[in-house]
Amino acid sequence: MNNKLVKEITSRDTDFAKWYTDVCLKAELMDYSYVKGFIIYRPYGYAIWENIQDYLNKKFKETNHQNVYLPLLIPESLFQKEKDHVEGFAPETAMVTTTGVEDLTERLIIRPTSEVLFCEHYKKIISSHRDLPKLYNQWCSVVRWEKTTRPFLRGSEFLWQEGHTAHSNKEEAKEETLRMLDIYNKMGSELLAVPFVTGRKTEKEKFAGALETYSIEALMHDGKALQSGTTHYFGQEFSKAFDITFTNKENKLEHVYQTSWGVSTRLIGAVIMVHGDDSGLVLPPYVAPTQVIIIPIQSKLPIVLDACNKLYEDLKSLGLRVEFDNSDKSPGWKFSESEMKGIPVRIEIGPKDLEKGEVTLFKRYNREKSTFKIEDIKDNINNILNDIHQNMLKAAKVHVSKNTRTAKTYDDFKEMIDLGGYVKMSISGEEAELIIKKDTTATARVILDEPVVTKICPVTNKKATQTILFARAY
Asked: Model-level pTM?
């Protein structure tokens, strides 16, 4: 087997950050562009994003959401309408100030998010309770001028979806916020084989302008957490700032209740860092661009070529994403390449196996090889892919469980946070959060719906009011 490709990847345990960027480049997920923080999504990387889009679009349509597209540019005066919002994004907004020939009379902000645009649109189209709810979603890119960037995880430009909804009452808006959190959580287990921890953010960590923020948190191989998506209950904060009103059933004027929710290409980073190994990507079957790759041994032999083509057509007929690699590369190189790209199943077909009516099947996630009767592959492949998915999810859950600890003293907390992973601790509030962040760089990921671990906060010696899940994070 040709290991040249693998040798070009830094070991995860030697330098996790370098391993990550090596995999992104060598697996051909992306390439760097000429502007820092702006990446090129190569076909293989974009295909992962398309599979995420397909999953979510199906869920969004099932819950009566509609896709829209709003403009890239926001007038600065419009952006200023929501002061909390501006405070949250002003340091990282990029602006258009000139046409190249003359300066603009008003600076235009390249959207870091689209709350203000949706608000202005909703103001125009909502007038009665009969116009509600408005359940809109947008797939687009946003620009946030980040100082430190890393492919998929944090970029000056990234791809995402952002849902923005308007409702006639608080209860419906809150239900929407939690419904979308549930959809994101199920996406983790059903598509990505990534177990998310979900919960409400603390006041300090919530989205600027939101009354409540909920997030999905994933734990990476190196023990750092990754906020992988958020849902926000805005209440009437934005609708009052933008004067979005409707006439209710009692014929009284009222402000709408709003939500917002989104995930981004950070999810690709999560899949890489949760499942990958020193040979490259390890992709769960349902999000993998190629689920099965067929590699011939001695491809010039008609018996081998015919068997490969027949199996390829059989698997395609099942709706699987299958590839037949009939290039002139050596089998060893093809094996290394398919492992680098994390293709869940590799089927090797050679003349010796065919004499017995068999093929060799390789599972990427555990490197297990087995032989199958060629006529049995079609009937068994979906079960094989499902088993791979479930086992990858189970392994990721074990990783989370093994790396979740509970601290009763601040000294214990400091020791545990240095081990990596999640640490539960009951604290008194924001004062304790700030001290913990300053001392350890760990941040509050979510508020846990659990009793307090200790009645007194180990950090401030004040009454503990809530149990928080902490971690160092990307």
From this structure: 0.96
3-state secondary structure of 313: helix
> What is the separation of C-alpha 231 from the centre of its chain, rounded to a whole number of angstroms?
13
The one-letter amino acid code at 449 reads D
The number of C-alpha atoms within 13 Å of 86 and in the hemisphere containing its C-beta is 12
DSSP characters over 21-84 = HHHHHHTTSEEE-SSTT-EEE-HHHHHHHHHHHHHHHHHHHHTT-EEE---SEEEHHHHTT-HH
- Residues in the chain, pLDDT under 70: 1-7, 82-86, 89-91
Question: Do residues 155 and 257 lie in contact, with contact meaning Cβ atoms separated by under 8 Å?
Answer: no
Can you name the residues that pair with 277 across neighbouring β-strands?
280
pLDDT at residue number 209? 87
Cα 115 to Cα 94: distance, rounded to the nearest angstrom: 16
Per-residue pLDDT tens digits for 271-324:
999 999 999 999 999 999 999 999 999 888 999 999 999 999 999 999 999 999
The amino acid occupying position 71 is P
The secondary structure of residue 446, as a DSSP letter, is E
What is the Cα–Cα distance from 28 to 436, expressed in whole angstroms?
A: 39
Distance between CA 27 and CA 278 in Å, rounded?
Answer: 12
How far apart CA 199 and CA 447 sit, in angstroms, is 6
Return d(Cα 136, Cα 172) in angstroms, integer.
15
Q: Specify the pLDDT at position 7.
A: 65
User: What is the side-by-side strand order in the sheet with 322-324?
Assistant: 322-324, 292-296, 345-349, 358-363, 368-373
**pLDDT for res 3:** 56
Mode of pairing for the β-strands spanning 134-143 and 66-68: parallel
- Residue 13: partners with Cβ closer than 8 Å, 6 or more residues away: none
Burial class (CB in 10 A: 0-12, 13-18, 19+), 2: middle
Q: What are the residues whose beta carbons fall under 8 Å from the beta carbon of 60, sequence distance 6 or more? A: 67, 137, 163, 183
